[in-house]
Write a sequence for this structure.
């Protein structure tokens, strides 16, 4: 009689059923960081640059909700004020712990970014058809998901994907790497609309530079192949629990460095300690009262 094999051990971590383009990039950059952020979903302390980017994105979204003739610098200034007010109680802003001077500087930097936007394009000529557009497509058993900042039509009726960036533009040798993520959006457009965009644009508001690329059937096919390969690696890592750190310059900006074994940390402590640190960051601060 054939002996029935015992059930295999359960996977060390639950395999995620969906990924965003940024998460795919996160795994290829550092599997350990991916484990912390995407598998364990540990909270990260908010950063000024990221929060600033979120608020500026929101202001530009509000601008394009307006009628074409109302897309003026004055209107965008109002939209920025609205975005700042919306985020004034958001954990990502509250957690920055900005005093009055720092808050004023933060606002000024946001204002500078939106002022530079108008030197890059005339919003009254943009034929937008989608703003902050949530899109999904299946790649095998994985659901690839992403948000397109702006989807528009060019003069010939072709689709154009526009992505706002509030950080610095990459140097020439890193330019194509910066475009890797937006090629995912070309794939999503092809899957959802049946059309490959005629152009993908990255608008770097800080420097006023725009980087453009024209996706092709080959580049879209490569996204499918690459995503399947990364997904297989994610499944293996979740099954074995083997998420290895990959040291690079990006480590300098990693929120989880203190728990990374590459820096002498214990990753098993991150689950409790990272959440406790985040909760403490958002806890109301005691108000000191001075005697008259």
């Amino acid at each position: 009689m054939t002996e029935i094999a015992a059930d295999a051990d359960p996977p060390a971590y639950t395999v995620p059923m969906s990924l965003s383009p940024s998460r795919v990039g996160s795994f290829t950059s550092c599997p350990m960081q991916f484990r912390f952020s995407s598998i364990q979903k540990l909270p990260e302390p908010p950063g000024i640059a990221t929060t600033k980017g979120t608020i500026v994105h929101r202001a530009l979204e509000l601008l394009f909700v307006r009628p074409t003739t109302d897309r003026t610098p004055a209107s965008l200034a109002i939209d920025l004020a609205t975005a700042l007010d919306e985020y004034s109680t958001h954990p990502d802003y509250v957690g920055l712990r900005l005093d009055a001077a720092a808050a004023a500087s933060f606002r000024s930097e946001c204002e500078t970014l939106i002022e530079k936007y108008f030197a890059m394009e005339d919003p009254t000529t943009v034929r937008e058809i989608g703003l902050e557009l949530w899109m999904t497509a299946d790649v095998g058993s994985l659901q690839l998901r992403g948000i397109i900042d702006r989807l528009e039509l060019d003069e010939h009726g072709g689709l154009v994907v526009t992505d706002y960036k509030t950080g610095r533009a990459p140097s020439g040798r890193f330019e194509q790497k910066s475009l890797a993520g937006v090629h995912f959006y070309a794939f999503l457009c092809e899957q959802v609309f049946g059309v490959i965009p005629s152009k993908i644009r990255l608008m770097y508001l800080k420097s006023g530079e725009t980087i453009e690329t024209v996706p092709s059937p080959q580049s879209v096919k490569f996204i499918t192949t690459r995503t399947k390969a990364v997904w297989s690696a994610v499944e293996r890592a979740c099954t074995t629990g083997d998420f290895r750190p990959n040291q690079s310059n990006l480590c300098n900006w990693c929120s989880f460095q203190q728990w990374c074994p590459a820096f002498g940390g214990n990753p098993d402590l991150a689950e409790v300690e990272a959440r406790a640190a985040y909760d403490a960051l958002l806890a109301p601060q005691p108000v000191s009262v001075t005697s008259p």
Notes: Residues 33 and 256 are 7 Å apart (CA to CA).
